[in-house]
């Protein structure tokens, strides 16, 4: 049974992704900042008959928490097949580029960018032991520079000093990571679940968590002939899932 670690898996899109992959037969480690919220998520999935799940406490903004989570996971499994870096924060809104305090911007980057990098690097040794390691970095369409500079884009007027740029940086890191590991079995992509109605945006998005979880699960489960170093989205313009950088 393949193993998956999903950060921020106790609610919303992370939880739905866990549900879908568990239903497909993966063993899911539910990453959450508190063990209590992870346990609550576990009980919900068990009530649906999904027993191949287990909570794992991990706060991606805390390096000590990440190291402890790696130690705990190492006691449970010798390898990891899929890492889904889903956890993230938006920061206080609105985010004017001229008035938002740099401390607030740094807090968003510490989670969405540096936190994701820390998790990836810390769990990379377990991923290397998989025959088909996969990494999905959950991003946003607001991180697409092409979409952000195209007046015809439906999100052209949605700008943020911290959140969008943190995802742009994450996209760039993913490209470099995928290139560095290009001659290995790794498949590493960024996936935007689309503008989804969740607690993250006060349930204002038109998309569903079911559709959001579906696209993340899709690229977590790609085969050896699948893409790497690419950007996919439910909000992509044109045909297919591919999103412009």
UniProtKB/TrEMBL annotation:
InterPro entries: CBR1-like, NAD(P)-bd_dom_sf, SDR_fam
Organism of origin: Hymenobacter citatus
Residues in coiled coil: none
The name this protein goes by in its record: SDR family oxidoreductase
Alphabetical UniProt keywords: NADP, Oxidoreductase
Family: Belongs to the short-chain dehydrogenases/reductases (SDR) family.
Top-level taxonomic group: Bacteria
Pfam assignment, any one: adh_short
């Amino acid at each position: 049974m393949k193993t998956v670690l999903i950060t921020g898996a106790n609610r919303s899109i992370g939880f739905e992704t866990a549900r879908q992959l568990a239903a497909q037969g993966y063993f899911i480690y539910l990453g959450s900042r508190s063990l209590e919220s992870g346990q609550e998520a576990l009980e919900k999935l068990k009530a649906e008959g999904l027993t191949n799940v287990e909570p794992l406490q991990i706060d991606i903004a805390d390096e000590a928490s990440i190291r402890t989570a790696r130690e705990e996971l190492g006691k449970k499994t010798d390898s990891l097949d899929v890492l889904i870096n889903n956890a993230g924060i938006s920061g206080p809104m609105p985010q004017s580029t001229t008035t938002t305090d740099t401390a607030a911007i740094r807090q968003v980057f510490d989670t969405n960018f540096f936190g994701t990098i820390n998790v990836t690097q810390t769990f990379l040794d377990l991923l290397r032991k998989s025959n088909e390691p996969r990494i999905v970095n959950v991003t946003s369409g607001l991180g697409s520079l092409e979409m952000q500079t195209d007046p015809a884009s439906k999100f052209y007027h949605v700008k943020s000093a911290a959140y969008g740029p943190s995802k742009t940086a994450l996209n760039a890191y993913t490209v470099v990571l995928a290139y560095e590991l290009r001659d290995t079995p790794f498949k590493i992509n960024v996936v935007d679940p689309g503008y989804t109605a969740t607690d993250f945006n006060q349930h204002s998005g038109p998309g569903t968590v079911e559709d959001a979880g579906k696209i993340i699960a899709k690229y977590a489960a790609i085969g050896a002939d699948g893409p790497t170093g690419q950007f996919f989205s439910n909000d992509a313009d044109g045909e297919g899932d591919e999103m412009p950088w």
